[in-house]
Amino acid sequence: MIQLEKIEIALNSIRPFLQRDGGDVELVSVEDNVVRVKMVGACETCSMQASTLKAGIEESIMNAIPEVKSVIAV
After folding, report:
1. Would you say 70 and 35 are in contact if contact means Cβ atoms under 8 Å apart?
2. pLDDT tens digits for range 16-45
3. d(CA 74, CA 59)
4. Does residue 2 have a pLDDT over 90?
5. pLDDT, tens only, 49-59
6. What DSSP string runs through 2-68?
7. Domain hosting residue 37, numbered range
8. 3 falls in which pLDDT band (50, 70, 90)?
9. What is the total count of domains within the chain?
10. Please, what sign has the CA dihedral across residues 65, 66, 72, 74?
11. Are 52 and 18 in contact (CB under 8 A)?
12. CATH number of the domain to which 57 belongs
């Protein structure tokens, strides 16, 4: 089972970059090794949201927790 603490630690590593631009990310749930996050603030409407999700958030989480299959925004 994936520990939520590890996911939060991974999210905290990327958070300063999101917050610098007025955004943030919240952990919503983890089901079947799929992490669901919510992009908030400026990230909700940013045209780079998909890129930030894949290249930043997903990479950070999957590097820290290899058993994660994917990260999706809800």
Report:
1. yes
2. 999 999 999 999 999 999 999 999 999 888
3. 17
4. no
5. 889 988 899 99
6. --HHHHHHHHHHHHHHHHHTTEEEEEEEEETTEEEEEEEEGGGT-TTHHHIIIIIIIHHHHHH-TT-
7. 4-73
8. confident
9. 1
10. negative
11. yes
12. 3.30.300.130
